[in-house]
Design goal:
By secondary structure, this protein is mainly alpha-helical. 47% of the residues lie in helices and 4% in strands. The chain is globular.
């Protein structure tokens, strides 16, 4: 992440391998967060396109909410962002930690 620097990339690699620019990001008034939109915001922050603070303010997210998206992507990829699967993947991850 390129936080605290004036130089930012014009684009980063999105969750599906496509170029992602500020114009490609979800609208700031997004209310319905589908998997792709969540993954795009995570990719933008990870790639330095947005700072964490900018993303939280722009999308009115809590730090905990964004962090849960980021953890899900890190653990199991985009499929971990599906709301219906969160508990399944969380249980699986916790079982793996016990071994």
């Amino acid at each position: 992440m390129i936080e605290n620097q004036d130089i930012r990339p014009a684009q980063v690699i999105g969750p599906l391998g496509e170029p992602l620019t500020l114009e490609d990001l979800p609208s700031p008034d997004t209310k319905r967060w589908v998997v792709r939109r969540k993954a795009e915001v995570v990719a933008a922050v990870n790639g330095g396109l947005l700072t964490l603070d900018e993303a939280l303010e722009r999308y009115e997210l809590t730090l905990e909410e964004f962090a849960s998206w980021q953890r899900a992507v890190d653990r199991v990829g985009m499929r971990g962002l599906r709301v219906t699967k969160i508990q399944v993947y969380r249980d699986k991850y916790e079982r793996q930690l016990n071994f």
